[in-house]
């Protein structure tokens, strides 16, 4: 017991704040707070969140850089990068906007299997964590001071990823073409009433973002039956990115799209695009994940970066730059950070359970089979 206490005390001493004082915020952070019209008090506890072992800092200074893949466009990333440069001037943050899933997660995994590490941090593994797990390509992240910042229900048992943004993936629709009375109350209603049959629905090849949650909750029998019925509506099979498909809905090329995230619909609606967001029950609550590659030559710099991203400052910076709803447990239900709060208030949620990795593989195989069959007709 004494040894345990001594070790805990030593660990506490080893944690050092990377900010000289609580009141000393980077100029870019002050600029962000002003732009968002928020008081600095919202960042209370930030020093503690950013306190990492001194050994990590020393090692990161020697490493000097961290290579990052995200889906955030470079122009938007600049807001995030400016804060990082001030906060950690000893690390070069080499960010790449990698929006194509193949390049973002397939290539790094293939390279790892060949004995090469081409990126240190990957964001948005798109439900493919199980493949990285099988290859031993990721490291556990539960030693990060900020690991407890995101909701417990979003954590994996092996701690190989962290949740960095929340999303409610539901339905995006054209407000000029779809009446509110046409909107389905449940996901089963989508395939029952046929309102969106015959090419009126644009379907993205991203079932892991929404169907996985409901499937995981209701079981394989329901999931397979639902998938067959969904493809039976004769939807448009779209290969564009999520934002591009939503823009097409706004132009009237389809009445609605599945899935659509509220943080993508909201900004378009503000610009005058005729799009709305609707969530049938249960509401698929998902998180975008972030992971650190195993055998990375920049492990400590990578962990410092991920820990910052989990902090209030990092989460707010992401919202400022990309309109992304934070995953931070103090922010993810905060009205300041979420579009269409009425679409989730009081509704049942579909959150991934412990068997999600197994469900994910079953869904992926069955969905791909149905997609290929439909696309070949």
Tags for this model:
377 residues, alpha/beta, D-Maltodextrin-Binding Protein, domain 2, eleven-stranded mixed β-sheet, two-stranded antiparallel sheet, 13 strands, 42% helix, 17% strand, globular, disordered N terminus
Describe this structure as you would to a colleague.
The chain has 377 residues and is α/β, with parallel strands linked by helices. The protein folds into 2 domains: 2-166 and 287-337, Periplasmic binding protein-like II (D-Maltodextrin-Binding Protein, domain 2), CATH 3.40.190; 167-285 and 341-375, Periplasmic binding protein-like II (D-Maltodextrin-Binding Protein, domain 2). It has 15 helices and 13 strands. The strands form 2 sheets. Strands 3, 4, 5, 6, 7, 8, 9, 10, 11, 12 and 13 form an 11-stranded mixed β-sheet that branches. A two-stranded antiparallel ribbon has the order 1-2. It is globular. Mean pLDDT is 91; it is low at 1-23.
